[in-house]
Amino acid sequence: PTARRVSAMSTVGARLRIATALTGAGAMDYGLTQAGHEIVLQCEAEPAARDVLSARFQGVRRARELCEIESLAKNVDVLVISGMTREYDGSWRESWSKASCAGALKHALRLAAESRVPWLVIEARGRILERNADTNEAPLMHEFALELERLGYKWAHRTVAAAAFGVPDVSARVVIVASRIGDPRDVLLTEDAGPLHVERRTNADEHTFVFNRHPEHGLRVYADVCEGFHPEGRACVLTAAGGLMPFAIHDAERMQGLPPGWTMMTRPSLHGSQGAELAARWDALAVTYGCVPCSYWIGTRLADPYSVKYSGEGVPFDTAVPPSWPGAAYNIGHGRVSALCSPFVRTITQLPCLGNFLTTAFFEGGPLVSREVAVECARVMRMSGWEPPSQLAALETVDGGIKRDLSEEPAVRTPAIGSRPTSDAALNVTDVSAQGDAKLDNNSFVARTLPLIKTKSGNFIAETGEVKRMSGPELLAGDAKRPRMGTPPTGDPESGGTPGSANRMSFIAGIGLAHRRNNQLVWAKLPGHPFWPGMRVNEDKDFIPDDARAMAREGEVLIVFFGESSFGWVRNDQCLDFEEHYATKSRDPGRNKARFQAALKQANDELHIRETQAERDKLRKLAAQVSTAHKFPVREKRVALAQVKGCTCRACTTAPVAGTAAQRCIRSEAAEKATSGHVGAKLTIQGKGVIGKNILIFWPLDNASYPAKIVNYDPHELRHQVQYVQDDVQEFLSLWKEDVSLPEGETLGGNVPDADHAGADLLLGLMSAG
Questions:
Q1: CA distance 306 to 291
Q2: In the chain, how many H helices and how many E strands?
Q3: Sheet with 244-246: strands ordered across
Q4: What angle do the packed helices 47-56 and 27-34 form, to 10 degrees?
Q5: Which of 301, 296, 217 has its CA nearest to residue 257?
Q6: Using one digit for the tens of pLDDT, what is the confidence trace for 667-706?
Q7: Over 70: is that where the pLDDT of 658 sits?
Q8: E strands within 529-634?
Q9: CB atoms near residue 136 (< 10 Å)
């Protein structure tokens, strides 16, 4: 078996078989699969994380505890274990706790000795390199390295900064690679950006703050970059513009490199995840603490570990356990050596900034922050040496609604940026998200109201009286009595509300678009800049602050630009239709190519959404115009039908429990919905006859339809398995309950001939009954 493994590992770009453990919701797994490898075994105990793994890695064998795995299969090439969320207290010789990092490392050694796996990859926090603070015992890395050397493994470790991969987090992440057959230095140490040279920020006086409650250190505040963001539902963001809002769950996923929505287990609703579902998503992220780009980098190096040989310099250890363990070291059989290696594997000129990374929009949906949490955020800012903005400072007084004397409260110090905490005490803050559906007074929330100020992008945020959003859709009574600045005073028949109301508009750079899908897509050119994709603002219906209107000149139109979160007044002759001039204007400009491509992608996505919606509306109109002679009659009463001949659905094959009414045939429900022209219902009653058809599935939260292909059919639940074209993700759906349409060129097929036998009998019965 060992010889066969060596042959497989020597193949350039090999697809390796990997077993992972303790990786939470699968950040490491996702990065490794993106590098072309296959996950064959997973181990995770946290229920919410297991649900995510089951949905994202279907068909993979999965254990709950490492102790359940006696040995690895002979074809496993790599064992990957994450210790990022493990406990680091206690002694190596005493700890076999399943929650400790030492226990996880011992299980890794046990499996490596039993199965002789060729490669071993461990990801851990920086504390693995530190001595035990209570007993001054050697670091866990020393004990682990001793056992690796005894088993005949060569090893190397390196401290890697997630900031090198574009994530605004500078916490230490230690990656350990051990191998029986290769040189681990070639995987970890060959790519090095050297000393970090960071350019000075042009807007150094503008900061974005994140308030994060760490389980060990209490509430902490970070400016511009995090130092170990701990996923939890009460985290807050204070933007450079002064808006305080909850930290969005999709941004927490992106902080780990995961795609937004990775932990979402149900179809998104208009308001996103709520209640228990949202709590489960936070729980899954809390036990993950991964970095997908870092895992992808490791995966690419493992796929071709011999392409680049390590030739760096090192300093041999003076003793087996140096006073301070180095950030990078190795032992390939000639003794332990400290490697001169930077934590940045890629060259960067600027540290990633929270203000540019976070996508949480000031005007877009989501809950508000409780006043008590806001007061705690203001206090933590003061203790860390920052002056809170006037909006937060006002809440610390009686006029702000919080009647408390902060001077009499016990001082709970929180660390300044880059320093260690002086107290582990946690702040007592009410968890608003845990209050369920209880009715809360609007006064207990912080209204996101701002003066008219200039943001870092050079654009304006509406002032206090113009746009306010409370816990409900209603506007403040005082504001509802007067028209919004820059908008017509009359309501819009399409939206059912005033064009200036915040809950109806889509805001970009402070400009409110009343009906985003109706704004013309254009190419617009500002002096000194290339043609850039954007949307033309409707000056009569859309919300435009007075300060923005004052910039206009005669013959100019207002454009909001994609990818820039900015706007500008452009001469009418420098504003061209997007589709008509796409061929000539979509070429890369001489500079800013990356920004241009990002903006172009957003514009193309917007165009695709509009075309999809237009096609769906067209199909609905055609369905409404079809003669009723070709439709099945609708039953007047929803009574349980007798068992349909040949039907294998759950209701028809399950005997009713004594004393309960018989379940209604699922197929009959779908058939009745098909009589109203529902496309998904018509596909459902055709059973396996529609496998291979292409469809469009509408997602309400994204407000877009995504193309998918029907690949399988479950006759028991009357569900079809669909595979999305964009990312190949598969899921089973009851199409008769979904908003489904057909792409251009695709047809439903005949009403009866294409249906399966049970469906044909049912349809004929319905037609004769009518």
A1: 24
A2: 20, 28
A3: 218-223, 209-214, 236-238, 244-246
A4: 20
A5: 296
A6: 778 877 877 778 888 888 888 888 989 999 988 777 788 8
A7: no
A8: 532-536, 556-561, 566-571, 575-577
A9: 7
